[in-house]
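Components:
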Amino acid sequence: MRAVRLSVVTAAATAAALTAVTGCAEKSDAKGADGAVTVIAKDDSCEVSKKEFPAGHVTLAVENRGSKVTEVYVLHPDDRIVTERENIGPGTKATITAEIKAGDYTIACKPGMVGDGIRQEVKLTGAGAASAKRSPEMDAAVAAYRQYVQAQADATLPKVKVFTDAVRAGNIEAAKKAYAESRIGWERTEPVAESFGDIDPKVDVREDGLEEGQDPAKDWTGWHRLEKALWKDKKLGAAEKQLADTLEKDLADWVKRVGKAEITPTSMANGAKELLDEVATGKVTGEEERYSHTDLVDFKANVEGAQKSFDLLKPVATKNDPKLVAELDKQFAALNALLDKYRTDKTSYVFTSYEKVGEPERKELSDGVNALAEPLSKLAAAVVK
Amino acid sequence: MSEQAQEQSTAGAAPSRRTVIGWGGAGLALGAAAAGGAVALARDGGGTAPVADTGGAVPFHGPHQAGIATAVQDRLHFAAFDVKTKDRAELVQLLKDWTRAAERMTAGAEVGEGAYGGLPEAPPDDTGEALGLKPSRLTLTIGFGPTLFDGRFGLEGKRPGALVELPKFPGDNLDPARSGGDLCVQACADDPQVAVHAIRNLARIGFGKVAVRWSQLGFGKTSSTTPDAQTPRNLFGFKDGTRNIAGTETERLAKHVWVSGKDAEGSAAWMDGGSYLVARRIRMNVETWDRTPLGEQEDIFGRDKREGAPVGKAKEHDEPFLKAMKPDSHVRLAHPDTNGGATILRRGYSFTDGTDGLGRLDAGLFFLAYQKDVRTGFIPVQTSLGRADALNEYIQHVGSALFAVPPGVRDRDDWWGRALFS
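Structure:
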């Protein structure tokens, strides 16, 4: 009974999510902005001419009167991006158009293109059904997670640059040192990155992930190709330097797109479980980092990412299933304590090489993963019921 | 009683295999027996249906756990677990949860709220691979290993004297990763998928509280606890343990298998109605065995290969004349008369876990034996076998475990291990 009702709600929510928004931003000098909503962006303010306007085809006439390059976003209550326009220079104008359904939204200006922006709440009225309402708690969880994901992506690029700079400089030792840390932000938020489909195969595929007919020399890119060059082949040539550029470019694309990812409380909960699946299938077996043996760094990052989702969903899950939340608290603590045995400094991400972790210890880690992943698989239900 | 009826249908199915094997001489007689079995099967309504389809449910509740005296099912999945939780209450809750799941699965029902129809956002309670399959005479039997009594759960004072550390026997080459365990569950069924489903779901319920230490699949029974049935052959092609204790032999069961009376006093009071289980993974070097001349094979066992009759006798169940056998023959060394009357109930299964990387089958016997006390059961028998058995050239014991198997779960308010933990 309960199941049927919920599945209908879920279906409606999915449909709404699919049809709610078709965003587009076109370059324009703001001609024909009749009836357009104007947005005056300054260094310390973001003035929207109307707080309430009709849903449907929406045009925002943006003018940057500040001294910094700015961005303007239209956001859902959970911070998911409806549409955006970047690189609006001081003194210039731009027009943003989008098909937007009725509902509550936020318009944010980001002077200097950093931070969460200066925000204004707006309401779109009339046409189209309002998208499925979520509780403010759930929206808050999703918004906070979205900010986490973006922050992880933003913080990754400079770390990747340390790695790629070393590769380009032909400095094998420096590149090895920077390798594992450059992956942490990615590993923490992997399910979101994977939701794009095209980025993961470019940056995080292993050699055995290539398809029949693909040539490792030509078609294999990303971290693990460089991992093999550093630890197995022990040489950095022109091809590797090129691969470093490609990795940087592909990850920049990820950083740019990650804010548009479809994130729901359910996908957060399932994403947490998927991170543990990653640990169970790739890290505990030592397959992920077969040359560098830095699997425990990925392991830790996966657990941290899962724990972040869980922590943010806790207020909702506690109401529905306090026993599950208590069990998850316990199992996260137990697995983290187990991982701490493999690093001397609990603030660092230098872990024991997985090569040196024996079979009984690997089984202990695997048992810890199972102990956490099984109750974690019930989190999504605790969030929606 | 219903177990008896079901065993007849299974026993009836077994000889049909022999009609394929035996086509000369006494094979005719076997063929005739098989035909009789087939008729009985048809009368039971089984017809040509596979054995699993005829498998009903074995009652879960009773004074003894099912899966010991129960007519031996065709397949096995056995798992040993390490207890991971340090919390006694959590372990007790797991045993209760397991008992309820075992009640459902042995009755042919799904675990918890089933395998489908629940919340789409949640993984189903039951894993689903046994949907549509009959109960297949599934039995689930729990045991407690010596390490459970090491003080983690306040059970030090309840370790029975019979739950000893098994001595090292000559020739043992035990792998710690395939030995021991705080808990075990023996799942026997006529359908392998039903047995695997049961262990898988119990392991899943146990995550966080227990972890699988090792497990073993058995594809074919090597023992019978049914008096009239032929003893199934092991991977050496021989019948062994033909004088097994039958499920109907109440007196022999009471004498050799069930713990009672003075054996169930003091620290073993909770074992009244229970038994002790020895599990041994015995690797069999089938390739070298297969190159052994028939006469030598028969001398090693002390039986003829075709009928399984002891040396100089006509039928497998004929009383053996030990002195006619070579002193190092398997039957002679294993016989109760050689071991001060030691008698055990055997319930072993043949296994093949793929190959060993050297092009040889990783095959053997997963030996399971139940007894009232291992000190007067398995230990004397294995001591004499380990020392002198001619078979030792072809086998090696590579895994070992001993468990105290508590009495049965009496009803829906009872649970596995209640007497131990109360």
